[in-house]
Amino acid sequence: MTPKSILKNSTVSTNEPSATSKPYTQRHRDVALQHASIIEEQKRVEKEVLDAIMTLMDFPTSPTADPMRPSPSDALFFQGLMVNFQPSDYDSLIEERNIADRCGYALCPRPKKKAPSKARKHFIETDKGVEIVDRRTLEVWCSDDCARRALYVKVQLSEEPAWMRRGGVNDKIELLVENAEDHHKALPLRLKQEAAPKPAKSEEEEDVASAWAARDDALADLALERGEKPGRLSKANKDLLRTHIQERVQTAPSVPPEPPTQLSGQSHMAIEGHIPRADRPKDEDEEDDGTDWDKHLPG
Amino acid sequence: MDERSNVSPNMIKMWRVYRTVKEMCMDRGYEMLKEDTDISLDEFAARFAKEDGEPDRGRMHFSCQPTEAMLVKYTDSPTPKNPNPVPQIGTIWIEFNSDDAVGLKQLRDYMQHLVNGSFYSGIMVVQKPMTGMALRLLRGSASIEEGPKGGVEVFVEQDLLVNITKHELVPKHVLLSKEEKAQLLQRYRLKETQLPRIQVTDPVAKYLGLRRGQVVKIIRKSETAGRYASYRWAI
């Protein structure tokens, strides 16, 4: 048997919003939806970055790859994944690769450099003299070249989180590659610009180039279709932006503000329009004078 | 203190961590012998010491079976749609990671191990906090298919040096089963959202391995009422 309540059976729940509170307008709902969609976008991007880091931990695809001349597919893949990254995400990538005992640069297959000893701090000869550095900072890269290449990518990343970005900004990451000429031909991202000035190429190369260009176009179309590139935000908050501008119509002719009529001499004493009584000169017709209480008394 | 003089400080630390983990498993309701939870330092050193006197974390791993009472507690009451509900708990695998830094790689290996060994859930004890990305993976691990069903919990050794539930200022927390929760809500005519809450990241909630939606009964001493019970909804 359920215990019986000693409280009255009231029909009105206190949790219900009272009728006097303002009704929710469409605009409130739009604002809430807008923020919800941003949070959802954030979750999606964070998951993508996590997946990207997990993929890039096992990069490059072949163990003999050369970080100076990465294979076009690897390079393109890497560039594509980097678009969503913030510099902090990139640091995480380097950290994870180091834990997996690899060079911090994602296109380098070599293991990271081993410090000469296990001491926590190390003396390093530099141009400026001897420096004392942490062992961890020594064991990030396989070589100085890889460090340069990796940081070349990092400085191009945008500090702004990917879910807050406008479309079309910063969606190309350049890689620092040696013998750039060969590489630019192979890299489809640069192909369109370079194809026009140098039409005289062997047929095979042209075929390859056109194939890459077609693929690039197709990828761009797909991205467009997904609604990724052009202004993700503007699409979402379409309802919040008013395209129709309403002019403020003036109904009455403008009137200059009234000059202070009474006690104009005291206007400089006014505090937001009020003149404190303490400094006001004595007035004859002032009603609540401090001494007039006995005037009206009989007798 | 005489017996401790020949044991390395790291050994003593690991001994305390190991005991806390054992106690934690017992408090959660896994099968555990009382003798296991208060293993002496000498015995611990004899079992897990390397030649150089440092603890060998690789050998400290163990697994636990849930007790009957725990199985009942984690089983939904049967419904017409689901007449034979499966308990939401199973064998747990506890591992002490010996790597200096723990990142995605170790966490994924661990998850893979749990799945291969068909463990329901796992606890990994690490020396230093994990990397940010690993934490991110852990947060979403309950929902991904590759991980174990019951999820993975990660504790830092530093947090397990003492058993926080033995502190006098920490009241007793008791997990309620689904049935008890329903009775509680009916007794006080509440919806579960009307209960006070406790975060699942709360130290005691982490110790008990609370999941979202569970209710704990907190029994604390009261000067006026003797004992006072309150309830918290894990969120």
From TrEMBL, chain A:
Residues 225-247, 274-283 have a biased composition (Basic and acidic residues). It comes from the Eukaryota. Keywords: Hydrolase, Metal-binding, Nucleus, Protein phosphatase, Zinc, Zinc-finger. The keyword Hydrolase applies. Pfam families: RPAP2_Rtr1. It catalyses: O-phospho-L-threonyl-[protein] + H2O = L-threonyl-[protein] + phosphate; O-phospho-L-seryl-[protein] + H2O = L-seryl-[protein] + phosphate. Residues 1-26, 191-210, 225-299 are annotated as: Disordered. Its EC number is 3.1.3.16. Residues 80-166 form the RTR1-type domain. It is an enzyme of class 3 (hydrolase). GO terms for molecular function: RNA polymerase core enzyme binding; RNA polymerase II CTD heptapeptide repeat phosphatase activity; zinc ion binding. Residues 7-24 have a biased composition (Polar residues). It is found in: Nucleus. PANTHER family: RNA POLYMERASE II SUBUNIT B1 CTD PHOSPHATASE RPAP2-RELATED. Putative RNA polymerase II subunit B1 C-terminal domain (CTD) phosphatase involved in RNA polymerase II transcription regulation. This is RNA polymerase II subunit B1 CTD phosphatase RPAP2 homolog. The lineage of its organism: Eukaryota, Fungi, Dikarya, Ascomycota, Pezizomycotina.
Automatic annotation (TrEMBL), chain B:
GO terms for cellular component: RNA polymerase I complex; RNA polymerase II, core complex; RNA polymerase III complex. Residues 10-113 form the RNA polymerase Rpb5 N-terminal domain. One of its GO terms (molecular function) is DNA-directed RNA polymerase activity. It is found in: Nucleus. Pfam families: RNA_pol_Rpb5_C, RNA_pol_Rpb5_N. It comes from the Eukaryota. The keyword Ion transport does not apply. One of its GO terms (biological process) is tRNA transcription by RNA polymerase III. InterPro entries: Arch_Rpo5/euc_Rpb5, RNA_pol_Rpb5_N, RNA_pol_Rpb5_N_sf, RNA_pol_subH/Rpb5_C, RNA_pol_subH/Rpb5_CS, RPB5-like_sf. Keywords: DNA-directed RNA polymerase, Nucleus, Transcription. Its main location: nucleus. Residues 162-233 form the RNA polymerase subunit H/Rpb5 C-terminal domain. PANTHER family: DNA-DIRECTED RNA POLYMERASES I, II, AND III SUBUNIT RPABC1. Belongs to the archaeal Rpo5/eukaryotic RPB5 RNA polymerase subunit family. HAMAP family: RNApol_Rpo5_RPB5. This is DNA-directed RNA polymerases I, II, and III subunit RPABC1. It comes from Clohesyomyces aquaticus.
